[in-house]
Hints:
Elements lengths: L2 H16 L17 H6 L11 H31 L13 E9 L4 E5 L2 E6 L5 E7 L5 E6 L6 E5 L5 E6 L15 H11 L1
Parallel strand pairs: 1-7
Antiparallel strand pairs: 1-4, 2-3, 2-5, 5-6
Helix pairs in contact: 1-3
Amino acid sequence: MNAGASCWICVGLVLALGCRQSTGDRPVPPASKNSSFARVAAQPVAVSPSADSSERKTESVGAALKAGAAAAAVSETAKAQDDLQSEDREVNPLSETVTLTLSISPPVKALVMWGSKQVARVSPDNPTVELQRPRNMGPLDLDIRAEGFLPHHTRLYTDRNDKVNVRLVRPADATGLLGYRSSVAATAAKAKTK
């Protein structure tokens, strides 16, 4: 458990023990709108009048642990939402052209092909390619070919500035890829279906 979650559990324990006072005719003060933790912790715990103090403490601690767990869940959700990042806005969304960026790793010599047309050459010194294309001309299907690596197909969209990172894979490492079959296995499967 991380330090933030244990801190919330401690706060929950303190609040739960503080809420154990007899409310009598006093109403329980409403919790703030932003604190679901305070709403859970402020709920009274039902205890029979004949229960002794050890039972009351046990129930208080149980309620505080529930409140602490609820607070930890809320803080984890907030942390996950903070990790999300949105795309950067385009400088001019009505421009006539878009910039398509293709980054290739590992940095090797490679050719970027659009059908049979060579679009760019990639070198180890500069593994990034930037292409200027007319806006809304349709998707751009590119093949990246490098010696010693499997060919890689990717698609860039021209309705906005687009960026794609490509990781090239050696044939020896390809067995871990989803759906990969070696050429020997592929020809055996074709021969079996005929």
